[in-house]
Design brief:
5 helices, alpha+beta, about 25% helix, Sortase, Chain: A, single chain
Length: about 280
């Protein structure tokens, strides 16, 4: 082979090498892209996707009156509860029953506190066999859905928007509690020992055991409404309680199990098909 032919051969070889290199790089890129796509498809997603309601609060404030104002927003997983939170301008405000699509806080301000009590009317879901949904439900009626185990084990998060921020809580108890035993003190006046006492009360009365660690240092939210579940002569409220998701904590699914408290509730549900519908909180 002469020099000229040798140069041509070397040139062809370099060209083949470049082609092989480019083909190898292309294959590797395709493989890496495929792996990235697979990872994105099979990677676990957060159990609850937080959707900000900050803009909703601002829009709802256009409806403020001389008696009350919008101070926040409440959203409860699995329900139609996606509602403005009102606060009274004065302490003696009686929130109107006829007004639809709202709940209220007893704190009378728009600040985030270590203990939040959110209340709402239950007009059309007072019976011993509560409905999970209805076109008539515009207030806190759907909160009663949590009396059913299948519903409770699928829906575990409460979203609160207040003071320009969105907060997320893990539900840790669902309770029927005598109204006089519920601590209505809210805001930063709630001391750790008071919160600890309420947590113990909630845990003692909860219908389900939630795999959620909670203690007096956590920030708590209580959603509260009235009920006739145990009859008209029983002055109990229905509560769904949550604690603030801790820093770095995953928004995951967690276990929920019936406990002994649920037996009585289950017996009432099976034994009453009536539906009372004319009372309010």
């Amino acid at each position: 082979m002469n020099v000229k032919e040798k140069k041509k051969s070397m040139k062809r070889q370099r060209k083949r090498d470049r082609t092989v290199l480019l083909l190898t790089i292309s294959i590797l890129c395709i493989v890496f892209l495929g792996l990235a796509l697979c990872r994105s498809l099979i990677a676990p997603k957060e159990y609850y996707q937080l959707e900000s309601r900050v803009s909703n609060v601002a829009l709802s404030q256009d409806s403020n009156t001389s008696d009350y104002q919008t101070v926040g927003w409440l959203k409860v997983q699995g329900t139609n509860l996606d509602l403005p939170i009102l606060a009274g301008i004065s302490d003696d405000i009686n929130f109107p029953v006829k007004k639809e699509k709202y709940v209220w806080t007893v704190s009378n301000d728009d600040k985030f506190h270590n203990k939040m009590n959110i209340m709402g009317h239950n007009i059309y879901n007072l019976s011993s066999s509560p409905k999970i949904e209805s076109e008539d439900f515009h207030r806190f009626e759907e909160l009663m859905s949590f009396v059913y185990y299948d519903f409770a084990k699928e829906n575990k998060y409460i979203q609160l928007t207040i003071d320009g921020k969105d907060y997320l809580y893990k539900i840790f108890s669902v309770d029927f509690i005598n109204a006089v035993d519920i601590d209505m003190i809210t805001g930063d006046d709630s001391l750790n020992e008071d919160i600890g006492y309420q947590i113990d009360l909630f845990k003692d009365n909860t219908l389900y055991d939630y795999d959620v660690d909670v203690n007096e240092n956590d920030k708590i939210i209580s959603l509260i409404t009235c009920t006739r579940f145990f009859g008209t002569d029983k002055f109990v409220d229905f509560l769904v309680n949550g604690r603030l998701v801790r820093e770095g904590e995953k928004i995951d699914d967690y276990s929920v199990k019936k406990n002994d408290n649920y037996t009585k509730v289950e017996n009432v549900i099976k034994g009453d098909d009536s539906n009372e519908s004319n009372s309010s909180m």
